[in-house]
């Protein structure tokens, strides 16, 4: 994947997904983080809900990592939690959305309008990594 600015990746993710939302941004951040921490990544196992809003993470990871369901380099497993395990070179790193963040986010978007969703998405974009994710080297 060529070097792109964060704004460019966000624009691509929104164009691919159809709208800006917090779970799209979280997926985008997960993909960028996983690829930067495990450069020899060959595939990603996503554990997430299979319906929106949690499933929106899938599109964010695909756009930001370059791995896709269609190429067979992304496997999606249904889960009540949200995580992405990047695998390659005999190693893996898991980027897991903190359970408290996931719960709070689901509550905050319930009934939110488009403007509120976009505001929350930008908050997710700017939040420190450690406030959002737990990283585990396996």
Give a description of the structure.
The protein has one domain: 2-Layer Sandwich (60s Ribosomal Protein L30, Chain: A), CATH 3.30.1330. The protein is globular. With 138 residues, the chain is α+β, with helices and mostly antiparallel strands. Strands 2-1-3-4-5 form a five-stranded mixed beta sheet. It has six helices and five strands, in the order H-H-E-H-E-E-E-H-H-H-E. The mean pLDDT is 95. The longest helix is centred in the N-terminal third of the chain and has 16 residues, at 22-37. Helix 1 (6-17) crosses helix 3, helix 2 (22-37) packs parallel to helix 3 (56-65) and helix 2 (22-37) packs parallel to helix 5 (114-126). It has helices spanning 6-17, 22-37, 56-65, 99-109, 114-126, 129-132, and strands spanning 43-48, 74-78, 83-88, 91-97, 133-137.
């Amino acid at each position: 994947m060529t070097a792109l600015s964060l704004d460019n990746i966000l624009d691509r993710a929104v164009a691919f997904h159809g709208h800006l939302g917090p779970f799209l941004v979280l997926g985008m951040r997960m993909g960028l983080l996983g690829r930067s921490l495990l450069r020899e990544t060959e595939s990603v196992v996503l554990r997430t809900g299979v319906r929106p809003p949690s499933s929106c993470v899938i599109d964010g990871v695909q756009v930001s990592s370059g791995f896709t369901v269609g190429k067979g380099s992304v496997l999606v497993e249904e889960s009540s939690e949200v995580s992405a395990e990047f695998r390659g070179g005999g190693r893996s790193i898991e980027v897991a959305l903190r359970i408290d963040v996931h719960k709070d986010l689901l509550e905050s978007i319930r009934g939110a309008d488009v403007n509120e969703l976009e505001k929350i998405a930008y908050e997710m974009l700017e939040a420190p990594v450690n406030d959002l994710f737990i990283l585990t080297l396996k």
